[in-house]
Amino acid sequence: MGERELVKLRELKEAAHALFVRGRFVQCAETYARILRLVPKDPNVRVRHAECCRRAGDRQSAITSYREAAALLMEQGCESRARGALRAALELDPRDPILLSDIARLGQPKAQATALEDERLYTGATGLFERLDARANKAGPPPPPPAYVLRAAEETPAPGPLPAAPTIAPLDVKALRGARTMALPPRAHPAVPPAMRRASPSIPPIIPGRLITQPPVPQAPAGTRPAGATVTPVPPAMRPARSTAGVPRAGNATAQAGGPLPLAPAPANGAGASHAAPAATPYRPELRRLGPNAVALRVSPQARWVIIRSDSPLELSRAEALPVPAARQPPAAYAPEQPPAGPTPASS
């Protein structure tokens, strides 16, 4: 077929498709008839011509085209498609004896006929479209596996029996329900030597508003105490508190700078004062300034620090005695401040 005929065939197919889309089936059937004059051995064009004739109402022309398409498909080895074309023609005339005989001659469809038909259609004499597995089958059996594969297969041990599962004793539910409580082992406490027990001081809790009482000083045995020595009683110490006065007093620079507040020594009593036992005061209040608006306070070296912060700068002053009622006023633990020397202003 020349180039001019191929161009004409392409134009006719495009025109037939456009007529079929528009629903002009009579003109479409005539166009496919002209195409069949150019390619009379094309089964696809025969099927399309039969479909256009069926929609146009020309049953006889449609049946003829279906039968010719089935014959062409049988020549190409496409039995399933040929059987479908005959069934489409039989729907137009179910009592046609020729169609019934053709369908009976074809018989029942074979299993997987489509793959065989495709292989017959696209396998040529040159072998260009021949499948690779067909060439392998023609070449002969595959080569034997290498020797190391055979040795590995021979050395593979046979799987032995699985290990037996350990036996688990049955659980006695009634015994568990009967036992209401479970005895726990006593908790082991670390053994503390007696020396450490005596050395560790016991700090009583500090309650604001109450006096701090000091424990009595243990007296020395009579054999070790020197002759004439006496024990000086120590008055109870008061908990130092920040004064409410806005202006600090003179001579209190050491208290404002921070540091432990010194205690006044107890007066000596008698001739053996040099051999008297020193007063043991485990409570030594300490006050430290951490910044302009923060101070730290603790009542003894064993106690924790209490940090006091303020939004404004704090002013510290040393108080000689706590502001307590006169009935509960204890003896002063600090040295009284000497009044300033000079004339007393006359009261008006």
TrEMBL record:
Could you name the domain of life of the organism this protein comes from? Bacteria
Extract the ranges annotated as region (Disordered).
218-279, 321-348
Q: Where is the composition biased (Low complexity)?
A: 253-279, 321-336
Locations of Pro residues compositional bias? 337-348
Q: What is this protein called?
A: Bacterial transcriptional activator domain-containing protein
